């Protein structure tokens, strides 16, 4: 067990929800207590609703299981995956906060090279609160960081930057590899602490991992749909990738920034590569067609919000990806259902009131 | 003075030339001796030919001053800048090696966080000898590095990578800032060692600095022209930027990779910001139009070599940039002259013999 830890003064405590897909690891919230306890947690239970999730004393949280999701969303619950971490996006939908930090329960506090524990959430908030630079590469990385700036030759007209919508953090110890790479390199550990945050340039896609991810829910939340994965579907382990492709092209279209790099956390456990291979094997070859699709997507200029972009993407998915597999027809429909649900639960542009939800365990 | 240092076993000693634009700093070659002495140096003297450049004993070098450049190139010497570091590109032209490493004489050996001296040249050769990944971003940076790989979601069809043509290194201590930033932040020093090499994605431009730069001369040399700068021209300090814009769009068109990050060296001296402001002030506002021009350049598919790309770029410069200033008409013509000279001094595709040059000081 851990000694009672000092809880640090946190940034934007009333504007952030931490979304966690199930907690099986009892140490998880104890270890993160100094950093997470001041925040509100949304836990989305991915499997059997009869299994009780234990949350340590002192945490403020709401917990949703499958019964809650069905009750709250009604028929629209079909868009939320079951028995799969992809269900976490339900938490994004019911949150009322500006920012989401989502993390897996096998991820623990990492230390920087000086031995200091890394406050991952604070770094994410910093990344989201400072501009991004998607239009031109700055060779000294984040120009807004203490001790850095734009280098010679960086256009002055671009130095104001753009609003950051996504902050993608990294992992020490177990790297986020696919099953084939896990099988080939079972002993590989990431020990390299790269002290950088950078903007992923406009027009470039990246593999977005949800183990250590934060985003501005108001700006990009509608594109953070984790798809139809796991139980009843031919694919898993592509929930965050799907969200990443959709969110990146949406950010590029809307002129929003996506950062990757710091903060690190420590990923403790490699999942079983054989199970993973079974889950992801369709994705491994589908992505060879899906990625060129997203690389070539252009959205019409009428798409001025993430919702509108996402509806347009759903149409393009139906038009262009169904030839890969009939699954994409269901996915396209689910994308529309997701946006319907999003609009129902979130303040719409015309100021209509939004639905209040009641979790299993009220805070 | 320095104690005699052990000279390290170098990579590809017969395939690399080190090109230096003048050496005013006597310590420079002494400090780099353990790393540079096995290589051949090409020194291009930028100013008064009567000033004698002193090169320490034990170095194998050739030295060209303005008289040599005029004698060797004849009327084509007009494309090589005078009294400006931009003259260094003459060294790229007369080299017969596969790789060029170019460095300024106010750059010294840096130390990594463990205190070990960094062999910048060895790291550049490593960067150039391993593939680049311009089509998709790898969040754990260089996937070919020991202890790293492609992360989950990286398309397998792209894991072979592409040939790397350019390796752009960075600077500890004095960062490479423009004059306004120097004036605003006179005391800023770069102390952050970011332990990463990354590919700059296709379609993204970057500010290429020639203080610490290596490239594959055979693949991209013709695009590494440093323009008309300094004496007799309205602009300076944009020689490497110009080469960087041209070389990056050429690499993108030809499917070649550009890396930035490691190695670091230590940049010892900030140049005078007032002098710099005078040199670069036209560039500061011209770049606001030049960069969008390069961002929108498309080269025809018939351009299958760097030479062909560069001739096409020269036409586009004349067509699109002369409206900024008549200077760009001269620059466009000089770009053509440069390629004429390049083809004269380098093996042409049809196997014609190339011109042998005789420096002031033969090796």
Which keywords apply here?
alpha/beta, 9 strands, 14% strand, globular, homodimer, 33% helix, 363 residues, Spore Coat Polysaccharide Biosynthesis Protein SpsA, Chain A
Give an account of the 3D structure.
Chains A, B: InterPro entries: Nucleotide-diphossugar_trans, RGP, RGP_fam. Two copies of one chain form a homodimer. Chain A has 363 residues and is an alpha/beta fold. Chain A has a single domain (13-345), classed as Spore Coat Polysaccharide Biosynthesis Protein SpsA, Chain A (Alpha-Beta Complex), CATH 3.90.550. The first copy, chain A, contains ten helices and nine strands. Chain A has helices at residues 26-36, 66-73, 89-94, 120-129, 179-184, 217-220, 239-254, 273-296, 306-320, 327-345; strands at residues 16-20, 40-44, 60-64, 99-103, 107-108, 164-173, 197-199, 212-216, 257-267. In chain A, strands 1, 2, 3, 4, 5, 6, 7, 8 and 9 form a nine-stranded mixed β-sheet that branches. In chain A, strand 1, helix 1 (26-36) and strand 2 (40-44) form a beta-alpha-beta unit. In chain A, helix 9 (306-320) runs antiparallel to helix 10 (327-345). The longest helix of chain A has 24 residues, at 273-296. Chain A is globular and about 55 Å long. The relative contact order of chain A is 0.15.
Explain briefly what this protein structure is.
The first copy, chain A, is an alpha/beta fold.
